[in-house]
TrEMBL record:
This is GNAT superfamily N-acetyltransferase. The keyword Kinase does not apply. The lineage of its organism: Bacteria, Bacillati, Bacillota, Bacilli, Bacillales. PROSITE patterns: GNAT. One of its GO terms (molecular function) is acyltransferase activity, transferring groups other than amino-acyl groups. Keywords: Acyltransferase, Transferase. It comes from Croceifilum oryzae. It comes from the Bacteria.
Length: 139
């Protein structure tokens, strides 16, 4: 598996991965409101890393470099649990300066455990009743 910067030609597949992953795992959200175009809006001005194997994109991370912030980390559902997220997370950490931060929706227990297992700690919980999230830090 190789991690590289995203290319413009990757965008259609990245849109699909983002949509499918959220629809499958975001049980707290209204999946009918999710669209392919959400990817474009949710990654504006971000650096995007992709995990590729045999010319297939397995997942991506979008980083807002000025704030050392991981905005998105998504793995195609077919490749979940195969180390793709770990490789993307490691590459993201290497690309930025510590401390790094991210936000993880409080309801996303699987993601929360993933980050904690990789050395991230919960800093504070924020948000409203509809969607609380944890600000997490990696130092």
């Amino acid at each position: 598996m190789k991690i590289r910067e995203a290319h413009e030609a990757d965008v259609p597949e990245l849109r699909r991965i983002y949509l499918e992953s959220r629809r499958k795992s975001f049980h707290w959200a209204d999946v009918e409101k999710m669209t392919l175009e959400d990817f474009d809006q949710h990654t504006l001005e971000e650096s995007i890393l992709v995990a590729v194997e045999d010319h297939n994109i397995l997942g991506f991370a979008s980083l807002y470099l000025p704030d050392n912030f991981i905005h998105n980390l998504f793995v195609h559902p077919d490749f979940s649990g195969e180390g793709v997220g770990t490789k993307l997370l490691q590459s993201s950490i290497e690309k930025m300066t510590k401390p790094l931060r991210l936000k993880c929706v409080s309801e996303n227990h699987r993601a929360m455990k993933f980050y904690e297992d990789h050395g991230w700690r919960r800093e504070r919980e924020e948000g409203d009743l509809e969607e609380k999230y944890w600000v997490m830090v990696y130092e």
